[in-house]
């Protein structure tokens, strides 16, 4: 289903992501096709890394566009008990999901183990993280020069735990946006 950014925001505002649950939002994220020109005003690029660019936020959810440079990889992280949907708008991703073995619900000792590897995740293949399956690492797939992803977090995510698998610990990370363009947000805020 082709829609622009403002239509997606209106759709999400109209259904409340938490009230409708993972399957409904997962289907929306699988089927949505947003042209790259639609998200270009929200994009910034960081050489060798990725950027978190806010498109919309309210008390129930936030919508972000992440722009990934070649070889960019996140730290192993959780989603702080929130619901997270991710879909590729362009490019290809590899996802490494983890499970908690012990600890890892607060900063301190945390043993995790790989649970599932998804390679070549592309447009139309959304990923959902929540509860006991909320830990993962996202990477741009080898050979992909740049990738762009769309993320819905319900409720908005201010912090997460970042895991050091070798040391067996995790720490709290304050999250920030790389870009927040108030004038762009106002244009899609009905």
Strand and helix map with partners:
Elements (H helix, E strand, L loop, with lengths): L4 H11 L1 H15 L4 H4 L10 E8 L4 E8 L6 E2 L5 E8 L2 E11 L4 E14 L5 E3 L5 E6 L5 E9 L4 E6 L4 E6 L4 E2 L1 H7 L2
Would you kindly provide a written description of the structure presented here, covering whatever features stand out?
With 190 residues, the protein is of the alpha+beta class. It has a single domain (5-188), classed as Sandwich (Jelly Rolls), CATH 2.60.120.10. The chain is built from 4 helices and 12 strands; from the N terminus they run αααββββββββββββα. The protein has helices at 5-15, 17-31, 36-39, 182-188; strands at 50-57, 62-69, 76-77, 83-90, 93-103, 108-121, 127-129, 135-140, 146-154, 159-164, 169-174, 179-180. A hairpin with a 4-residue loop joins strand 10 and strand 11.
The residue-averaged pLDDT reads: 88
Q: Give the count of helical stretches.
A: 4
Helix content: 10-25%
Domain count, please report it. 1
Q: How are the strands of the largest sheet arranged?
A: 7-4-9-2-1-12
Q: How many extended strands?
A: 12
Task: Summarize it.
Helices cover 19% and strands 44% of the residues. With 190 residues, the chain is an alpha+beta fold.
């Amino acid at each position: 289903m082709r829609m622009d950014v403002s239509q997606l925001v209106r759709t999400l505002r109209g259904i409340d992501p938490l009230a409708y649950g993972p399957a409904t939002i997962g289907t929306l994220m699988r089927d949505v096709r947003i042209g790259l020109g639609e998200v270009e005003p929200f994009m910034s690029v960081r050489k060798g890394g990725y950027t978190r660019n806010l498109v919309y936020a309210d008390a129930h959810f936030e919508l972000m566009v992440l722009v990934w440079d070649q070889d960019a990889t996140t730290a192993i992280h959780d989603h702080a008990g929130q619901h997270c949907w991710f879909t590729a708008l362009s490019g290809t991703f590899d996802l490494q999901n983890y499970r908690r073995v012990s600890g890892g619900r607060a900063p301190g000792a945390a043993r995790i183990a790989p649970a599932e590897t998804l390679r070549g995740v592309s447009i139309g293949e959304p990923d959902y993280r929540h509860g006991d399956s909320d830990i993962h690492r996202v990477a741009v797939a080898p050979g992909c020069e740049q990738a762009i992803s769309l993320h819905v977090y319900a409720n908005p995510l201010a912090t997460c735990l970042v895991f050091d698998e070798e040391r067996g610990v995790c720490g709290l990370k304050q999250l920030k946006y790389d870009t927040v363009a108030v004038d762009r947000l106002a244009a899609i805020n009905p």
